Amino acid sequence: MVASPLMAKYGYHVRSTSLPSTSHPLTARVEDELNKLRGWVVANSSSLNSVVVLQEGLCGITCLYESVEDLLRLSHIQQVLVHHRHEKCVDKVLDGSLRLLDVSGTARDVLLQMKEQVQQTQSALRRRKSDKFDMRSEIDVYTSSRKKMHKVIEKCLGDLKKMDNKHPFSPSEKDQDLVALVTVLREVEIITLSVFESMLSFISSSRTLPKSSGWALLSKFKNNNRIICEMQQDEGGNEVATVYSEVRTGQISQKRLEILETSIKSLEEGLENMFRRLIKTRASLLNILSN
Fold first, then answer.
1. Cα–Cα distance between 76 and 146 in angstroms, integer?
2. How would you class 28 by CB atoms within 10 Å of its CB: exposed for 0-12, middle for 13-18, buried for 19 or more?
3. Do residues 83 and 173 touch, judged by C-beta distance below 8 A?
4. What is the pLDDT of residues 119-145, one digit of tens each?
């Protein structure tokens, strides 16, 4: 297993109330990864403004699910799940794994749309010197596309909040192993949702601009570099929001777009690794419960 980059940076040593200290050593690995991610969430809850930080979170989730996979390979854990396969709390574990896949699919679609937006804008800049090039049209298309994507993200964030507000699992069983297992899997789901929420919030964030067309903004800000600089500072270093502001004001550069495209691709890679882990974990649960 590859060491998590969160280990050194976010050493968040908090005793969990989930699995008992006498459980299998692999259980401790799940708790360790959970604590690192809790530290990541706490450290970045107020100012997540870097793709690099998001990559850390996605990598941390991947490491977390590697430890969950190891936990599910334990024969005792498999026996507990099989014995209680018809319990409501086990059904909720399966439902949670499906919800995570749905959210992951939405996030992947959003990143793909973002990348297409950036590539279209790059193409527009290359045609800028052409007599037939219409900058006003390109800005309006970008703005419209961005607004549609923002609505999708806002809906997804709303759904995430509803998931997070659901009551935690409260198995009434006397089987403490089941209670412990279900509790830790619920914690894994919650922390995964937190990382998704952080990523989607980062992507959707943009300083509120006047309600006018992109072309009107371009005319207003065309020669006012001071306003552009102030807008960039207000974005707090968020490269996604900064590019959005610069495109709307006609001050974007190819270099800035290339950097953003590279960042998006790195997030896509991290999300793809995470998606594969989510699929593998759900498949493992289904295989265990079908025996």
1. 49
2. middle
3. no
4. 888 887 777 665 555 667 777 777 777
